[in-house]
Each structure stands twice: as C-alpha cells, then as structure tokens.
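Support reply, case 0932

Customer input (verbatim):
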Amino acid sequence: MSGRRTTLSVLFSGALVLGLAACGPGQESGTTPAPDGTPANGEGTEASAGGTLARIQEAGSITVGFAGEAPYSYEDGGELTGATVALHRAVFAELGIDDVQGVLTDWDALIPGLNAERFDAVSAGMSILPERCAQAAFSDPEFMYTTALMVPEGNPAGLSTLDDVVDSDVRLATMSGAIESSYADSLGIDSLSVQTPQDGFDAMLSGRADAFSLTAISLNYMLDNNPGSGFEVTESFVQEIDGVPQVGAGGTVFRQGDDELLAEYNRVLGEIVADEDRYLEIVGPFGFTAGERPDGSLTTEQLCAGDI
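Our regenerated output:
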C-alpha cells in the first residue's frame, strides 16, 4: 500500500504537498501574496496596465492557476506540466509569451482566484458549465470529456454509471467543485468530498470510499501509473441527469472583460485543434487521444447556455 501511495504522490506532488515545500496552497514559488489584495505578481489591474494581453506580452510571461489534477496540470518534481500546460505553452508562445508560471489553488477557488487577479487564466481543463460562465469567460472547447468510476478489481458492486450508486450502500468519493460532484448532488448521492485526485485515491486505499468518480482520462492516467493498485476503471460513460446526457467539454478560463486576450487565445487554439497531428503531438504524451479532440459540434456558447 505504501508503495502505491509513494508512486501517486510523485505524480500528484502538486496536489499532495501543495506545491514546493516553501509554498502554501495557492502560493507561487518565490511569490508573496500582497496583504492589501493586489495581484500576487505585483502587476496593476487590467485598466492600469493597458489590458491583460498587452501586459503579459510585454512581460513575456503569464501566470495561470492550476489545481494539481494529472494529466491536465500538475507539478512533477517541482516542474509545472500536464496537457493543459503544454497546450498553453504552445498557444501563448505564438502570442509572444514564452513563460508560463503556475499558482497551485484548490479546485473550487480557481475562478475566485482568477477574478481576484491572483493569476490571469485557469489551466485545469475546467468543464464549461452555465454557472461557471456567469462568473468567468471560457475559451473554445479544448477537450471533450466522459466520466468513469475507479472501483476495486472485479467491480464487486457492478457499477457502470452513477445511477448504480443511487439508493445503494456504495460510498462514492467525488472531488470538491468538479463536475462529478454536481452529478452526485443532482442524483441525491451523499458523496465523500475530497480536495484532490490523490485524496480520492487515498479514500479508496483506506476503505473510506468504494468508488471514486472523475473524468475517464484522469482515472485511467492514475491507474496506468499505479500498477498493482488493486483497482480498475470502468468503461467511460456520459452521465444522464433527468434524462439529459451531460455531454462535457473543458476549456481555459479568463476574466470577463479580457476580450482581446480571449479572442487571440481562441484564434491560435482553433488552428491547433483543427490540426489533429499537431493537437496530439501536444497533448498525446499525457494520454489524450483523437477521441478527446473537439470536433466543432459543441460550442462554448451552447455549453454556457446549457443548450446540449
């Protein structure tokens, strides 16, 4: 058991130890948050800096918030990495911004931290949902999502979707603020709330949870990097809520009003997503496949309106 924990701790070091040893939650290495609520990077507001895009282009650097969820955005040996980070490095490089720094933040504090100007974008593959769109601006879809369940080998409870957990004795773990948590709430499931993927895995190891629900790509990545864990991941599925399939897609999050930055980001992103080979060259090393590449059938406008 300790061997499995150690392996996952390396992969999810950002989520487990909350960044480098000298940094607390949401604190960038080498940065001290200002006590008066001004941005942690010492920059002024968008208005005083002439716009976020102009400011970060002049600096050649952007700071993003991330939650430590592999394979999207996490720290490995103190290095910020992951599929969304790789995608951001590719996009921002074409905008003249070669440096991407990260601030580790609890998942449900990412949008509040963005709006408090602690960072200029969220790099987490965050699902595009109406309630989130009311608080921030989302890029065009970057990844298509399905859900899965991590269960003990052999799947003794016979779980295939979250519907199977309803009115059962199965103890389900979900990540606070993640879309799977909202699915559980909608279905009336009293799930165990965890802060990180590592916490969900630990809940399974300790027997506090019988199943852990997260995106299929995250659970499969976790399982692949922990052979002999005694767990398996179910086939991915699209959860239905009140008879409506919850088709999901994730994107980068910006502040409302950062229209120029969003437009330029979407312009470059569109070129990358349209080129399957280039898209997979960037995100493929993190386990993503052509199945996760957006095909244009689902737009941010539709997702923000709940029109799916």
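We compared this against your earlier run and they match. Two observations from our side: The chain has two domains: 2-144+248-305, 147-237. The longest strand covers residues 121-127. Please reopen the case if you see a mismatch on your end.
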